[in-house]
Amino acid sequence: MSNILTSRKQDYAQWYNDLILKGGLAEHSDVRGCMVIKPYGFALWENMRDVLDKMFKDTGHQNAYFPLFIPKSYLSKEASHVEGFAKECAVVTHYRLKNDPNGNGVIVDPEAKLEEELIVRPTSETIIWSTYKKWIQSYRDLPLLINQWANVVRWEMRTRLFLRTAEFLWQEGHTAHATREEAIEETVKMLDVYATFVEEYMALPVIRGVKSPSERFAGAEDTYCIEALMQDGKALQAGTSHFLGQNFAKAFDVKFADKDNKIEHVWATSWGVSTRLIGALVMAHSDDEGLVLPPRIAPLQVVIVPIYNKDAEARQKIDDKAKALVKELQLKGIRAKFDNDDTTRPGWKFAEYELRGVPVRIALGARDLENNVAEVARRDEKTKSSVSLDGIESHIAQLLTDIQTNLYNKALAFRTENMRTVDSWDEFVRVLDETPGFVSAHWDGTAETEAKIKELTKATIRCIPLNNVQENGKCILTGNPSTQRVLFARAY
RNA sequence: CGGGGAGUAGCGCAGGCCGGUAGCGCAUCUGGUUUGGGACCAGGGGGUCGCAGGUUCGAAUCCUGUCUCCCCGACCA
User: Distance, angstroms, CA A225 to C1' B73?
Assistant: First the structure.
């Protein structure tokens, strides 16, 4: 029974699927490409959401909500935007069903065709900017700093649980500013919020950077991103922040009067992270025994497993101690649970909580009580130690901090190890195949070269790191002059 | 959209070639013994075999059609 997961080595993709399904995070729904997020997975999302929401509010943003449906014509108002999203939009064409006259359930009522078809939002720029037009007249209405938590739909050809699903949950920030500089500042600020969140809460180091033009968001002037490295050496874009220039302001005619009563288009940004972060989290830290969750966002941080025996009196003592301990841990703000379910035995619980990635497990039996100790096991290193019950709460609190740090350090060490600098095409190809990870190399800056490299190696430019060192070199593929290195990787 | 796989009990699967009482493991329910790494014994319950046609005395099994999901590729957060 112990080998219920496919190992990473055996089949990384299958391992990931097993983890999501058996770890109780999500499952496939009856609708193709859509998933059901189960309570444990949703608890993870809620924790992420709560932290991010506070960070957004602390940086001056307010939440609002815009419709799920967008008039089809809105999408086409910004040329590159429609081009980017048109291929993956779900479209609502009718508003009513009726009983099939032939008796085969219900059919779409042909009489109920919509005058203008609606698309299910793949992102909300268009509906939001058509609204902002009404909200913004003067420089005094700026900056406008709005975020929304929502679901969006992108009709993907190929989906993977959390990493790419047809419907997903996310937040999208949409801001309007009086000046270009201020909008860029906002773009970078929110990228920084994402980076801080992912590094400090998810214990996952990221690289902040700018996308190459061909990887840009449809309608943006610049797309900033944070990129993380997964255990199989593939990169994953964990968040994006876009400087939209005046593209949407012009498309939707959003203008304001500045202090000199001059009429100008506003400057815009948008930024988002999604439930994809859960996929990143899973792939970054977990192992062949199951999930490994960083304490700061783990739904459950500590579980106490009782080890009973026949002695009813001893059992009572264990219960009393465990309940008192849970209470004390909770007083310290620790998410703790006493699992006294008597229908499963200790060994089963050990395996189950390991599968679910609970950071700390405390086992408490009669023998421990006699010695005034508990067995404390940490999920990240799979080590156990005997800890005195006196002041154990402080020990656990410290341990959770240590685990958080350890996970980050391990992920950072892994990324450092798998970040390679190469200067020749042969080496580039060899490194990608033999030791996947980020590859820092010179690129001549043309979309043609970028596309050719992708075609030949499946590697894409993940980003041009912020504050990138400028150095002269030769493009890895063409040998043309280059002024800086960019980061390549195969990516999710 | 191409290539592969799969739909049989809640879950995982066998059975199919060769048509004849629908089976196994896990889970579940009852009772008991247990409890320091996925316990054991005994007894019980649970299935329109994806759907629709056809062949046949008889179809999970053969034939035709159809739907769905998953995996691998091209597109993408």
Answer: 27
The total number of structural domains in chain A stands at 3
Domain CATH code at residue A327: 3.40.50.800
Classify residue A293: in a domain, yes or no. Answer: no
- Domain residues for the domain of A119 are 12-285
Domain assignment present for residue A80? The answer is yes
Structure confidence by residue, pLDDT tens digits, A291-343: 999 999 999 999 999 999 999 999 999 999 999 999 999 999 999 999 999 88
- Domain harbouring A471, CATH code: 3.30.110.30
Say which nucleotide is closest to residue A237, CA to C1' distance.
B77
What's the rounded Cα separation, in Å, for the pair A167 and A88? 11
Q: Is residue A409 part of a domain?
A: no
Instruction: Convert the pLDDT of each residue in A430-486 to its tens digit.
Output: 999 899 999 999 999 999 999 999 989 999 999 999 999 999 999 999 999 999 999
Nucleotide nearest to A375 (CA to C1'): B36
Is A166 strand, coil or helix?
A: coil
Question: In the structure, how far is the CA atom of residue A205 from the C1' atom of nucleotide B36, in angstroms?
Answer: 37
For residues A53-76, give the mean pLDDT: 96
Give the integer Cα–Cα distance in Å for A470 and A316: 68
Given a cut of 90, whether residue A9 has pLDDT beyond it is no
User: Which residue gives the smallest C-alpha to C1' distance to B74?
Assistant: A157
Flag whether pLDDT at A91 surpasses 80. yes
Please list, in sequence order, all residues whose beta carbon lies within 8 angstroms of the beta carbon of residue A75, skipping any fewer than 6 positions away: A81, A82, A85, A86, A89, A119, A126
A91 CA – B1 C1', rounded, Å: 20
Q: What secondary structure does DSSP assign to A232-289, as a single string? A: TS-EEEEEEEEEEETHHHHHTT-EEE-TTS-EEE-EEEEEEEETHHHHHHHHHH-BTT
Mean pLDDT within A104-115: 85
Nucleotide with minimal C1' distance from the CA of A309 is: B35
From A253, A285, A317, give the residue that closes a domain: A285
Classified as helix, coil or strand, A208 is strand
State pLDDT tens for residues A140-154: 999 999 999 999 999
Task: Check residue A146 and give its pLDDT.
Answer: 98
Q: Does residue A409 carry a pLDDT above 70? A: yes
Chain B footprint bases within 7 A of protein beta carbons: 1, 28-29, 34-39, 68-77
Distance A30 CA to B59 C1' (A): 29
**Contact between residue A217 and residue A240 where contact means Cβ atoms under 8 Å apart:** yes
Residues A69 and A129 occupy one common structural domain: yes
Distance from residue A275's CA to nucleotide B22's C1', rounded to whole Å: 43
Q: Which residue is nearest to nucleotide B71 (CA to C1')?
A: A14
Q: Are residues A83 and A26 in the same domain?
A: yes
- Spanning CA of A311 to C1' of B36, the rounded length in angstroms is 15
Smallest CA–C1' distance to B69, residue: A32
> ipTM value of the model?
0.90
**Co-location of A394 and A431 in the same domain:** no
